[in-house]
Amino acid sequence: MRSFDLQGHRGARALFPENTIEGIAATLAIGVDTIELDVALTADGVVVVTHDAQLNPDLTRGPDGTWLAAAGPAVRTLTLAELRRFDVGRLRPGSAYAGLFSDQVPRDGARIPTLAEVLALTVPAGVRVEVELKTSVDRPELSPVELADAVVAVTTAAGAVALVGVRSFDWRGLRHLRRHQPKLRLTWLTRADTAANVARWPAVVAAEAREENTVAWSPVWAPEHRGLTEAQIAEAHALSLGVVPWTVNAPDDMARLIGWGVDGMCSDRPDLVRAAMAAAGLTPPRPVSAG
Questions:
Q1: Domain count of the chain?
Q2: pLDDT tens-digit readout, 122-169
Q3: Nearest to 130 by CA among 118, 142, 139
Q4: What are residue 267's DSSP bridge partners?
């Protein structure tokens, strides 16, 4: 049977509040192979699960229950206790973000969790986690090495090295892990808006990953699905790269990419990916009752 990695993007962002324990538990109940999530560091050095460097006013309410009027403080400037005061359990009514995910079911009271809390939920279920390091070269105050090492410490403490992979658009953190943590699965993210600068993404990713000495994983290329071609997928496979595109939400795109032989996909709608898998003769992952 062909192997296929169904990844729930930020849990299942289109259905439940993103990057929350409540959303991730609900995603496990749908059935995914992998939970994809994003991480940052707090002021007191705790790895927390959040996509945004600053609190996002489209999904954050303050301690008084009112929506943030603008982008909130940087996560890096808040302690975990301070961060816990904010509610991220629903989308701001009338916002463009809420319009994108009109099917999302609120979970009022949801807080930004720690990575350790998420792993406490996923490890007993045997579900993998893909951790995206949210650093970039234009944010020098956010160290990819510091964040990568903090993720490794949490992962090791949870006994989850075999169930955790690390991904990033900022390849500095991945290069660091490739040298110092060869047992971790690494996923090299690329976007269509930077593809003009690189003629052949699969070859570039393979060259970056070549020194990897993994025990259980092969390097993975995670391209933006827009603009991805069947020929690029074939080239990546010839270079021994897995191909898991992001973020695939339309059923037609799901069916086409499965037909082209991708090794998985990351989606805000894992429920729809399951249907596409079944239609293609692939076995969807089992649902898990978490908690």
A1: 1
A2: 999 999 999 999 998 888 778 999 999 999 999 999 999 999 999 999
A3: 118
A4: 8
Q: What is the DSSP letter of 127?
A: -
211 or 250: which carries more pLDDT confidence? 250
Each residue's pLDDT tens digit, 227-276: 899 999 999 999 999 999 999 999 999 999 999 999 999 999 999 999 99
CB atoms within 10 A of CB 113: 23
Q: Is residue 99 part of a domain?
A: no
Query: Residue 146 is part of which domain span?
Result: 5-54+112-279
In a domain, 68, yes or no: no
User: Is residue 89, in this structure, part of any structural domain at all?
Assistant: no
Which whole number is the average pLDDT over 60-77?
95
Q: Long-range pairs for 170-174 at CB < 8 Å and ≥24 separation?
A: 170/133, 170/135, 170/136, 170/137, 170/144, 171/208, 172/135, 172/137, 172/144, 172/145, 173/133, 173/135, 173/144, 173/145, 173/147, 173/148, 174/133, 174/148, 174/208
- Spatial contact of 67 and 60, defined as CB atoms under 8 Å apart: yes
CATH of the domain at 30: 3.20.20.190
pTM recorded for the entire structure: 0.96
Inside any domain, residue 100: no
